[in-house]
Design goal:
By secondary structure, this protein is an alpha/beta fold. It is built from 13 helices and eleven strands.
Length: 324
């Protein structure tokens, strides 16, 4: 029996991150770019304190579940065919994750899949690749999250090389950057930690220097917005922006010369990112210096787009098997 012709799927995806929760509802045509219908992102800090306590706090769970209840209504109004909800570092690390998953199921009606760092990287790569020209062959992608960082070396025809490390903007703030702004000693400690983990992550990647260095997620897109002093976030101005190392150094200096309160209102800086953006600037600067990368191609597409692309592939695969 021949498989039916592929058609456009209307899908919803939610990424429950350590710092940020993201929603994307889009039409996914077979073999063509996503067409976004609705999107939202909120900095909810689900992973607050998890690095020390290994537990999700009641207040943090409440914040996320309240948001998911709102998004359930939005998703229902869009009449989607399927929804995929994933959770990353904070939920992976939390001893009380089952309590959180049961509450999400009971109070918001979502089944949540906890994905590993490698699986997070695989889906992030799907999202990034969907926004790059096919002619861009070899890439080293970087995804800086709240609780983890993924390095993904992708060369067409070869299996991607993935390394996930347990450093992120929330984790770095909670473990090292205790003063506001950080002290010189804290900065040195942070840089040494990031340098050490970065060297270990790329040790077995072979020659990554002649590839295109691509960055995704909130730290990198926020710095791209700040570099352009954007009054409001504009994906078209962010996506494929070339963020130079010298610009990151300048922005890092501006951020570290201010307290988090004094960072409020800086052009391009997303509200509620004032505390963690300094940690993010330290991380991306240190990684680029360690890897001898002079610029980063910014991708506004990442895990949440990859979640939808992956879901569409699963649905199409099931249909094809059904008609074999």
């Amino acid at each position: 029996m021949t498989a039916p012709p592929q058609r456009t799927l209307r899908l919803a995806g939610i990424d429950i991150g350590t710092l940020t929760c993201r929603l994307l509802i889009a039409d996914v045509p077979h073999g063509a770019p996503l067409r976004e219908l609705r999107s939202d992102r909120r900095i909810l800090r689900l992973g607050e304190g998890v690095d020390q306590t290994k537990r999700l706090s009641l207040a943090a769970m409440d914040r996320v579940i309240h948001c998911l209840q709102e998004w359930r209504t939005v998703i229902n109004s869009c009449h989607v065919e399927a929804t995929s909800v994933v959770a990353t570092s904070a939920v992976r690390d939390a001893a009380n994750r089952d309590e959180f998953l049961k509450r999400v199921q009971r109070e918001a009606g979502f089944e949540v899949q906890i994905i590993t760092g490698d699986e997070e990287a695989r889906r992030t790569l799907l999202g990034i690749r969907s926004g790059l020209p096919p002619s861009m062959a070899d890439i080293l992608a970087l995804d800086i999250g709240g609780g983890s960082i993924e390095f993904i070396l992708d060369r067409p025809g070869q299996k991607p090389v993935i390394q996930s490390i347990d450093i992120g903007v929330v984790r770095l703030c909670e473990r090292v950057l205790h003063h506001d702004p950080p002290t010189a000693e804290e900065l040195q400690q942070a840089r040494e930690w990031v340098t050490q983990e970065t060297k270990a992550a790329v040790a077995n990647m072979g020659d990554y220097r002649q590839v295109t260095f691509v960055g995704t997620a909130g730290t990198i897109t926020s710095l791209a917005a700040m570099a352009q002093k954007l009054p409001t976030y504009d994906p078209a101005r962010i996506h494929n922006y070339r963020l130079r190392l010298e610009t990151i150094r300048e922005l890092e200096q501006i951020l570290l010369s201010r307290t988090k309160t004094e960072r409020v209102g800086l052009p391009g800086l997303e509200k509620n990112r004032e505390e963690v953006i300094a940690a993010g600037a330290i991380i991306i600067r240190t990684i680029m210096e360690t890897l001898d990368q002079k610029e980063c191609l910014v991708s506004d597409l990442g895990l949440r787009e990859g979640v939808l692309i992956d879901l569409a592939m699963q649905i199409e695969d099931r249909r094809a098997r059904k008609h074999e």
